[in-house]
TrEMBL record:
InterPro entries: A/G_cyclase, A/G_cyclase_CS, ANF_lig-bd_rcpt, Cyclic_nucleotide_synthase, Kinase-like_dom_sf, Nucleotide_cyclase, Peripla_BP_I, Prot_kinase_dom. GO terms for cellular component: membrane. It comes from Anopheles gambiae (African malaria mosquito). It is an enzyme of class 4 (lyase). CDD domains: CHD, PBP1_SAP_GC-like, PK_GC-A_B. The chain crosses the membrane at residues 419-438. This is Guanylate cyclase. It is a single-pass type I membrane protein. It catalyses: GTP = 3',5'-cyclic GMP + diphosphate.
Amino acid sequence: LSCRKMTEMRDNGIVVFIGPDETCTSEALVASAWNLPMISYKCADIAVSDKTVYSSFARTLPPATKVSKSVAALLLANNWHCFSIVASKHPAWSMEIAHAIELQAELNNLTVNHFRIYSDYIPSKIYELQEIVDNTYRNTRVYVFVGDHIEMVDFVRCLQNRKLLSTGDYIVISIDDEIYDPNMKRNIYQGNYSDFYQKYIGNSKDKHQQNRKRYNYKDQERLQEAFQSVLRISPLFPMNPKYRKLCHQFKLYSRKDPFRVPLPYNRHIFDEIQVPIYGAYLYDALIIYARAATEVLRDGGDVSDGRLIMRHIFNRSYHSIQGFDVYIDANGDAEGNFSVIALQKDDKVNNSLHMSMQPVALFAYGARNATGTGTTLPEFRYLNPNRPIMWLKGRPPLAEPVCGFYNEKCRPKAKDWRYITGALVVILFMAIFTIILFKHYRYEQTLACLLWKVDMKDVILITSPDALYNNELRKNLVSRIKYKELQINHFQRGEKVCQQSIMVNSAGDVNKRAYTTIGLYRGNIVAIKYLHKRTVDITRNIRKELKQMREIRHENLITFVGASIDHGTVSILTSYCARGSLVDVLSNEDLKLDHMFVSSLVSDIVKGLIYLHDSDVGSHGNLRSSKILIDSRWVAQIADFGLHEFKSCQEEPSKFEKELRRSLWKAPELLRDPNCPPKGTQKGDVYSFGIVLYEIIGRKGPWGDLNMSWQDIVARVMSPEEYGIFRPSLRGIDAPEYVIQLLHSCWEEDPEDRPDIRLVRVKLKPMQAGLKPNIFDNMLAIMEKYAYNLEGIVQERTNQLSEEKKKTESLLLRMLPKSVAESLKRGERVEAECFDCVTIFFSDLVGFTELCAQSTPFEVVEMLNDLYTCCDFIISSYDVYKVETIGDAYMVVSGLPLRNGDRHAGEIASLALHLLNSISNLEIRHRPGEFIQMRIGIHSGQCVAGVVGLKMPRYCLFGDTVNTASRMESNGEALKIHISSITYGLLKKLGGYKCEERGIIKVKGKGEMRTYWLLGEDDQKRMDR
């Protein structure tokens, strides 16, 4: 269609084509074929720049690729010799610009580090831009971005996510195809980037709200900071001051021929719509043709000769209506004029930085670079030399770090050993100083911590030794403790290892099974020592003492568990030694201490003292046999050392007597010192060890058989000038000579003459000759010997226990029925039981009260003993149970606890006849000629029987039958047997018994009852039964 129109125009005699819009390749090709000039004001096709084909074509609209020269000029002006290109695949002009920039870089010796392309971008795919940044930022500092505005803003956000732009080391050059218009209040130029998205995403209200939400104020502030490192290259805005007036004239002429816009649309078109920049390009196209045609006519040429006209247009500049000069190169393309826009101070803008995007520089083609080669670059000029770009670091960023991206351009300097040595010395000094400070800090932190503190709420006190054997306690509270630590006298014969944990004294009882207050703390049995004080002020020295105690760990020193200072009591918790102290072991005559036992104990004590003397504690100060404990493995452990300040100021009862006893082990120089330190001295410990060694060998106490008071002994030890050197006697002691000599050395009056504890160990080395080198084997050997010794003791105790058991069972059978006694022995509970029918026998002595009044208590007891001995002998022949005797009353029952059918009535009746026959001939011992007169009552019926009480348990009967039987006895007569009608019925049923009716009598609480006298029985019938 366009070509047909062009043909019509040519036939009508036109000499030049101005236009067309948009694409123009076909039209330009036709015009070149006709050699008619064609000047376009809106054609952007790249192909028409080829003058071998389109020789009569020119254009005043600069093609998009022309911006590449301005980009190259900007890079060279700031010495950015290497950079990266990031371009969008769509629209097509962005790729054309990107390749044009790449070509200009090659022509001007610039290096493109990276060429990255992305396509079909939407805001949700920002990760693509972030990936480009992540892959390129390490070896580039300058980015040239070619794409839409929204994409550029997101690219800046990606750089800022890594905090690159805010450092001032990175720069982004963005290519903008829109002309910067200072008269338009666009948010992108005023530092507000959120509304900027609306144009590119759509006019939907919902989408716009989403963008506002996405780019919140915080994100906007970050972008404002980031845009200080962004430069935008945009086409230069018209600088002609009359340009707005010219645009108004364009509107007026558009109303006239040949356009003549219809009147209904005039106001909308000409009053509201701005004249596009293409109007200026159209005006320029007419002007340059007119200028060229004038020159051709002046030279006598043909104005319709397209190539001739182009020779007067190419490689020349013209003054555009926009107010600046424009250069047209040899290809007929206008070079275009571009400006650099950057963030500058602007107090009129309402944002956090008070900055807005403003033009700061432009690119100008002067005479010196208008050579017509097409490869020359414009000159970069600041619009105002006094107002340059506001670089973050006061200078443009470097295209490459001084030492290169990977520090490859900087070689290490030659080493100056003086500086290196000095630096190392300073570093070493600082390191030592830091280590000292750190150790001091750690030490103070350790002192301040409360790891030593024990809350007594977490401790379960074991109030009696028997609680250790309580199965329920062991199951519920001591599940983490090995069962062998709670056993007594249990040893495995197969391994010959005795696992006795609690001592048994020579008398065979267990009154010394727990030597101190013991409890359960975190699953372990601990010994609790209560101090005689209510509170403790935890000073720094006390904290140091507690820290020292927690750090001491040795098999021959008692383990410190912790201390409690709560609830008004102060206590120290240590590990529990089941065999007590050395005093308990030495005082146990059943325990034979042979050479191996003695050597092992002495060796343990010496090893414990060596470790204690080498530790921060330094010395014991209160060493004696009661402070040496023996655990279940027969290992000696020294206790009660350290914590001297913690234990000070106690209000001990009987303090003088205790101090006097303690003095029996104390060195003489310490006894004489009124300000004796609580921790004592190491030489003082050696003296005390000598006393303990003497005590172990002699087993007669610290001073043997010496018949002297403690006070006298201490006075003689303290006063060698008056009494001479006074020590325990060594005469008659059974010990090797080297031990005797060691005792003398340990007891030297001058502390300096005493050996230290390590020398003591050397001197006692012969004592360990019988010990095995392996500690475990030695322990097993000791426990094996103890096991053999204990076996004999246990066998002896077992025999004694068996005899006592028999006596106990015999006594129990006399107190309770056999079946009930057997149930109690098995640990079974005896429940009360109801019996449907039993027969109860009651008897008493007639005239017993008067008899007692006329006799002495001894005579009464003697008489009752004769009576009941006779009765007890008789009832053993019958199936009856004697319930009780109270004074002269005697109660017997048959038919319980083992039921015997109806035989119970016959058993009681025969017993009563037998007793009455025997008692009637029993003379009262202290009243010759007088005989005991007994009256008997019998009744049969239902009753309940059961065991009552824990101490002295009794098998008691309850029910109306008991009361009725008692009434039969009280309403009877001397030497007669009074029975109820129920008993009479049972006897009649059995047969063989002679009864006589007494008649109806009044019985208290029962009313009238028919009763009978039992007179005798048929012996043959009884035998038959």
